[in-house]
Amino acid sequence: MTKEISDIIQAFKIAQQEGRQTALATVVLVEGSSYRRPGARMLVEDNGKMTGAISGGCLEGDAFKKAMVAVKQQQNKLVTYNTIDEDVEFGVQLGCNGIVHILFEPVDPADSNNPVALLEKFYMETREIILVTLFSLKNTHATQPGTCFFFDGERTISKIEDKDLEKQVKENSVTVLSNGNSLIQQYPEVGFTALIELLQPPVSLVVVGAGNDALPLIEMAAILGWQITVIDGRSSHATKQRFSKAHTIVVGKPAEAIKQVVIDGRTAFVLMTHNYNYDLAMMRVLVETKCKYIGTLGPKKRLFRMLAELEEQGQVITSEQETRIYGPTGLDIGAEAAEEIALSILAEIKAVITMKRGTFLREKPGEIHPRSELKIDETKPGKIKTG
After folding, report:
1. In the chain, how many domains are there?
2. Residue 327 and residue 241 share a domain
3. How many CB atoms neighbour CB 231 within 10 A?
4. Domain annotation covers residue 270
């Protein structure tokens, strides 16, 4: 959802410049099925413009009205949409078959820690952070603290007035940052529930090769909001004019070029120079890094030859390193043209990053997403079970 957050930040800046009032709508809890999950956001402007999405389109019309009420009253508002009983709530068939709780927060540009400002603080970082949204389910007319806590492992920004509650929120935030799983947490003693959300930086895609077939790959990755780097040894090919959507362009030999790339568990490389020796030299460096994905264009025998040569040269390829190598790169979707191949590559990278299999959804048992249900875990007071 990094692209959505980026779009919201940019839309808010433009709204500020044009003097428009705004509210941020956040899905904080879902019971049953819904098109969007907790953490989905939408910026609503007083001229009717909306950036982001909180549903498949069925809630946006009413959401504008609720957002403007929040802006007019300058108060956070929690609104519950029951989409289970069709034709009852809105007179239309919503078809989501769930209960969606949405928090509307008027955005005050004068507040340096307003909800959009906290999103921007996350976007400017290059690491995972925790963002906490507090709300009251028992009394929707009560004070709704809203987006009020930011934690990046070192820095804490808090708008929580109750210090005991703040301490509990921070403890839960540390846990979420450690285990990598967002959490919906109840604090019954104060009547609040929290969406403790793990926000992750965008996927970093490094395209090794500045040929024409790299163009659609980069164009599509830009639509996803990924951070894009192009590496090639040819200065005539790796240019900003050719790859205007790339954030960084590096020209040089593999061992030197790789020093200019920050590599972590959300970094994916695709080797597509069509130059065997260049790809081999890059592979020699990449297998020693902690990148999540190394994709190679071309047949399997090309990759096998590459790995065999590295081993002949004394470089031991461990089983863990091999599991990060995908060759041929991409999912099997019958891709032939460069644009189709780009689609298959990006789909595979997304699946690997999110640890999914990339199978048909119709063959997946159960729901697409785990359902969130309000059930107190008696062994851990205050914790809402999900699933």
Report:
1. 2
2. yes
3. 27
4. yes
Cα(76)–Cα(24) distance, integer angstroms: 10
Per-residue pLDDT of the chain (387 residues; tens, 9 = 90+): 788 999 999 999 999 999 999 999 999 998 876 678 899 999 999 999 999 988 877 787 888 999 999 999 999 999 988 866 554 444 344 445 678 899 999 999 999 999 999 999 999 888 999 999 999 988 666 689 999 999 999 999 999 999 999 999 999 999 999 998 999 999 999 999 999 999 999 999 999 999 999 999 999 999 999 999 999 999 999 999 999 999 999 999 999 999 999 999 999 999 999 999 999 999 999 999 999 999 999 999 999 999 999 999 999 999 999 999 999 999 999 999 999 999 999 999 999 999 998 889 888 887 766 554 333 333 344 444 333
The strand pairing partners of 101, in sequence order, are 29, 80
Domain identity same for 211 and 190: no
Q: Residue 263: which CATH number?
A: 3.40.50.720
Same structural domain, 239 and 254 = yes
Residue numbers of the domain that contains 326: 204-353
Q: Of 168, 199, 230, which marks where a domain is finished? A: 199
Residues facing 183 on adjacent strands: 196
3-class SS of residue 198:
strand
CB 132 within 8 Å of CB 192:
no
Is 367 part of a structural domain of the chain?
no
Dihedral sign for Cα 324, 325, 330, 331, please: negative
Query: Is 57 within a domain?
Result: yes
What spatial distance separates the first Cα and last Cα of the chain, rounded to whole Å? 21
Residues 31 and 127 reside in one and the same domain: yes
Q: Which two tokens stand for residue 332?
A: 């099997």
Q: What's the token pair of residue 60?
A: 């946006």
170 and 76: one domain? yes
Q: How far is CA 90 from the centre of its chain?
A: 31
This prediction's pTM: 0.84
Residue that finishes a domain, picked among 150, 166, 199: 199
CA-to-CA separations, 305 to 144, 218, 327, 335, in angstroms, rounded: 61, 28, 12, 24
